[in-house]
Amino acid sequence: MAVTETKSTCCYCGVGCGVIIEAEAGKITGVRGDPDHPANFGRLCTKGSTLHLTAKPDARALFPELRRNRGELRQRASWDEALDHVAERFASIIREHGPDAVAFYISGQLLTEDYYVFNKLAKGLIGTNNVDTNSRLCMSSAVAGYKTTLGADAPPACYEDIDHTRCLFIAGSNTAYAHPILYRRIEDARAKNPDLKIVVVDPRRTDTAEAADLHLPILPGTDVALFNGMLHLMLWEGLLDTRYIQAHTTGFDALKNTVREYTPKMVADICGIKEADLMTAAQWFGTGPTLSMYCQGLNQSTSGTDKNAALINLHLATGQIGKPGTGPLSLTGQPNAMGGREVGGMATLLSGHRDLANAGHRAEVARLWGIASVPERPGKTAVEMFNGLRDGSIKAVWIACTNPAQSMPDLNSVRDALGKAELVVLQEAYHDTETTEFADVLLPATTWGEKEGTVTNSERRVTHVRPALAAPAEARADWQIAVDFAHRLGALLEQAPVAEKLFPYTQAEQVFNEHRETTRGRDLDITGLSYALLDAQGPQQWPFPAGASTGKPRLYTDGVFEQEDGKARFANTLYRATAEKTDARHPLHLNSGRLRDQWHGMSRTGTVAQLFNHVEEPAILMHANDMQRRSIHHGDLVKVSNKRGTLILPAHNSADMAPAQTFIPMHWGSQYMSGLGVNALMPSAFDRASKQPELKHAAVKVEKI
Ligand code: SF4
């Protein structure tokens, strides 16, 4: 049998590396980096280079399963039985309780085409905005930060800016672990340019912080105070670009009045850093050119939008945006959170970067879809959706390509919510996730190496993802499952012709072409892209309007922004403490994050033995003094608890942790650790604007057992 080679992308992080999949006799046998892909130029990290080892049938969901009554075990069913059952239950709930009694919880790991169809199914056919995604846990504060200041959800910089910058300001990101191939690019830039300064803002001394010229180990949640304090110093030091502020921005005077209060002494006290280090950071940033990179440390916070906006304020105040080597560049956690945002696959958004709250945008989408209207009622965002299941206002939930019983905050209440739901539909490639036990219906989906569609990475680059293999057993493409369901539901709701018209697709490319049309004239216009062009010319950055020959590597080069008056808006950001404070009973701060060689809940990476070589088992990292005070020795089992839950795991003495700070990796769930995983301890409090929950901080106590 001949070996076939198929160009695709890695399905893990938002760097979006290109891969070449090798397959033989119906099996994926190898993977290597695509030397032509501009995100990685042939390189892959440990996760990407072992992707072929994850293509194992034993862990997969391969056939539909169904139980008609709670308390029964699910049995294998045909696709017709399973989808008819779900359509009948959805139709009956919608008739009795209205469209907002059902909800869809989808994923930043879906392809753009999958996302588009689910969004249209909820908002276009059913008439509910209850469609949200695990991207709410990942990037929604970055979205809100961009829109508040720049007027559109568009990361202005690109990976190439790493080669042009003189100050790389990394905040709330362990890039070396979470975005390893981008980090290789940082190492290369540093080797070529010894003058490059790297500043890392992180409560932990991560591998990224270890390699920095300046590490600012701020206390958890104090980023806004830090950024306001830097702006205060830049004002005093004459580091601002007053001509740029005057010509291209509004709102600076109000912010100036605010940051006057953020004196170096006050900021150093709030953040727990030295005044001299604050001054160094302000000088390096202000002198520039400065590129900032940031991730969940800013986003997963009850002040996530303000953290993003306060950092963007620094770029606007110093005129460091739209020029080589400058600008804010949010690092997308998941491979296609960007694509999901583009199609408006969230409770607060609409297709083509439109806003649900905007009546004009709702009318445009209704016209594009050929329906009377898009519902105005706001949909439930992730935490609200599970609260709705618990209080009974939402009766049925359809979960696709994500594992909320491990990934949501306050897991005990999420599991309670799933248990109370009248119907849980789970569309998954893997059979045994934490969420599977709650599923009344399990629908087997295709996954990496089997799917066709597009993804967009952190630098707005769209890649055509191609299948190397046919779907295994009875698994089907995610968008196709949603289309099959839409036709059945339409018939039951006496809207069969509407459903036929809304969902005519037989190929992913038809979905892409329709999505493309919704972007016409918008900031992300991709009307010049097609599968054929992506195949012929390779991955492209948006915007790429019809008639263009290339995309734009960086945005706002002309100083014109997406706000109505064309000017960027300074956000008047105020520091607010974390939702939960430490106290005498719960005196330690708990942080969480990624390991280098694992991905999310380990459905995929957990099947590869060599990915446990880096870190074998979960542990809580603690400062030596905190361990000594509790008579805990390295390796001792400890109980970590607060009012939401308890975990039992080994404690490790770590020089990376400051006193009173602890860290548990996010990956292990109920099957590996006594308890449900670290998110059982995290609060469900969320940011007022972005609705993103604070997954990066809880107060806990640690006891030796
Ligand atoms: Fe995959 Fe991210 Fe590693 Fe690239 S850096 S190979 S996208 S996990």
Automatic annotation (TrEMBL):
Residues 3-59 form the 4Fe-4S Mo/W bis-MGD-type domain. GO terms for cellular component: membrane; oxidoreductase complex. It comes from the Bacteria. GO terms for molecular function: 4 iron, 4 sulfur cluster binding; metal ion binding; molybdopterin cofactor binding; oxidoreductase activity. Keywords: 4Fe-4S, Iron, Iron-sulfur, Metal-binding, Molybdenum, Nitrate assimilation, Oxidoreductase. Its cofactor is Mo-bis(molybdopterin guanine dinucleotide); [4Fe-4S] cluster. GO terms for biological process: cellular respiration; nitrate assimilation. Belongs to the prokaryotic molybdopterin-containing oxidoreductase family. NasA/NapA/NarB subfamily. This is Nitrate reductase. It comes from Pseudomethylobacillus aquaticus. The chain holds residues 1 to 705 of 903 of the full protein.
